[in-house]
Amino acid sequence: MSKKPNTDNQFAFDLKTPGEAGKAADIDNAVDMDSAVDMDKTPSTSSGPDISLALDQTESVLTLLDSWQQAGWIRPLDVRFARLIQDLSEEQGEAPQPLVLLLAALTSHQVGRGHVCVDLATLLADADNTLSLPPEEPIGALSTQTRGILPGSPAEQDITKDSLNSPGELLAQVSTQQCQDALEWTLAVSDGSHTTPLVLVGTRLYLRRFWRYEQQIAAGILQRLAQPSTLADPSSIAASTLSKSLNVLFKPQATAGSPVDYQKLACALAARSRFAVITGGPGTGKTTTVVNLLAALQSVAGESAERDGRKYRIRLAAPTGKAAARLNESIGGAVSRLPLAQLPGQVSLADIPTKVTTLHRLLGSRPDTRKFRHNRDNPLLVDILVIDEASMVDLDLMASVFDALPANAQLILLGDKDQLASVDAGAVLGELCQRAPEGHYLPETVQWLKAITGTDIPENLQNPEGQPLDQAVAMLRKSYRFAEGSGIRQLAEAVNTNTLSDSMLQQARSAGFEDVVWLNGRTSKPSLEDTQALICHHAVSGSPDAFRNNGEGRRDNKGKPLPPPVGYRHYLSLMQSHNLDANSTTEQWNELARSVLEAFSDFQVLCALRRGPWGVEGLNELIAHHLLKQKLIPRAEGWYAGRPVLITGNDYNLGLMNGDVGITFNLSPGADAHANGIQPNPLLRVAFPSSDGSGDIRWISPSRLQQLETVYAMTVHKSQGSEFNHTCLVLPDRLSPVLTRELVYTGITRAKNWFSLITGDASVFSESVGQRVVRASGLASEARLHQT
Ligand SMILES: Nc1ncnc2c1ncn2[C@@H]1O[C@H](COP(=O)(O)OP(=O)(O)OP(=O)(O)O)[C@@H](O)[C@H]1O
Q: Does the keyword Nuclease apply (predicted)?
């Protein structure tokens, strides 16, 4: 990219001296740093600029950005980033370009919304929609007073007026070329080869840090895809061991309708490559497949002459404590069922790990810094790393994984590509799996798979122009958890493919499915009062009577009888019925806590929003007050026995991770404490299950817990990585950008056996499915740069 020629310092941002290196770090961290810019420079006025002049004058743009910030449209951070660029440009003797400052603030705004970059063409085509401005809910939902603006002041009148110009109006006359020209002629922007705060690649504009993450990930993937494997030659000893192992691990499929065993194919593909992704919906056997894969790889290692029989060092990780605990639970059983004795290479149980750790713990997180203990200078001691629930891993964390992995270590990502993307910026798994449904397997991959697995790859999955990444991505296509007729499965599939039919909705409304019920689906516009009463009733009982046959007579996929659906009365009754007291042993309390925590996970209300009557805050309050009325809890506010809590931030001192769920117990209950609600001196402790699958319980005093919320209701975002026997999804009475297909799909697929739906307006369900989460990013194109 050409840079402005007539400047004193052509490489002004190519910072090389120690002092400047500090500034480079500032630039990298610009979106995080409150102190990066002198706050005194923020003008005190918010009077709107003349829109026609705004893009001609720096001050006009900055004033406009200030008024957007004061209206809660964008974050203070976004404005400070634009001002940082202004300062840096001026320091280099360059007049800051108004359009560049605007684009800088908008790029920062988009990162705050989960995007990795801004695509200029998409932005200019429909700026307000792309940026979601004006927002549904102003940032932080702060009152003008909280934002330091006096009621009635000119500033307040300014920001509350409807006429605040939107980015769409401002950018209406601007072309992509004009944006690119302005950006290319500014020292604050480069193609990444200089240390500039913004990076422009084609039409994608990045904050430098995120561009760097994307580069790191793409390079880590491409480097691994390019590494030769001894398995690539079907006549090698390694390949023949792999083939033998897979034939032991995967028996020929009995089902005539599905001659392709996608689990076996996934194992073969993932074994061959130093980077692989296995994606699949709920119950498609991701865990089962990865356990078989690890056994097959250890088998290959055991027979390998070069490795001298040494087995691989394998680590298993998940992004949250909850997801790690869930994999811990399922993996132990799958490993114990492995036919190890029949495998070549003398594989023993000790060779297959069953302990799953969180990614933060694995990488060695440290307080007050996002830098991990393990990095390229101190890499992980690992040959194979498996990350489950990879859809929850954001770009920043994934870049840290690649940074900490030795160059020849194998990385295997597992997850459901259709789930909601990570809360923070990026949609790494979704992007890498964009082409997974169509396979795109090259002729050599097809031949190799035939040689190793004996399987003929369906023609619709072949593509002579497939790309290297395609050859390392496998999709599991058959659900083993849900029977063909399962409503949860059918509904999830229809949501995912946007093919919800009237007859399916009708079935959901009328208990036509045995496992799904839309509780108020017959009422198109129920009153808020009626819906709240329904939510309360359902939260207590689980409404088994609303399901077909009162939820009785069902069996799981192994033929075990399934108990009917329950609500929160289930775990609260268990809490009330015990007779433990201050003299009981720790083990007795632990046992009670284990069973109560398990009972709690039998039901969960999920919702889309945070605020308002349909949000997590309103629903928690509503449900708590109803449980109090029913005498199931002694109070509805503060700390009390029975209060379930969700940890909302990592606390390394306590060993608690974002997403951990605990339940409050009174360790010195009075005889009839619950019944009359009077607790003279309750000894309250919150019980958390340990995330290592050991079944241990950690008892923590409420006063030590910092970031938490009550969790009768949980957002769908927070529920990722968890599963509940019975899940109730509550959707609000009107559509908002938060309500998307991915959100509804993720909500439905949190249900293991029972799913119930409550809507504030019947049309919102289908309308939500029509909306998609699209995150701007360049990873998919970066990761496919080179053909093998
Ligand atoms: N090939 C198979 N044949 C029969 N049953 C299977 C097969 N693969 C998996 N299962 C069973 O299906 C269920 C789900 O499998 P598994 O837990 O491996 O799926 P998953 O995709 O990891 O699930 P989740 O969506 O919970 O992450 C388990 O009970 C497992 O034993």
A: yes
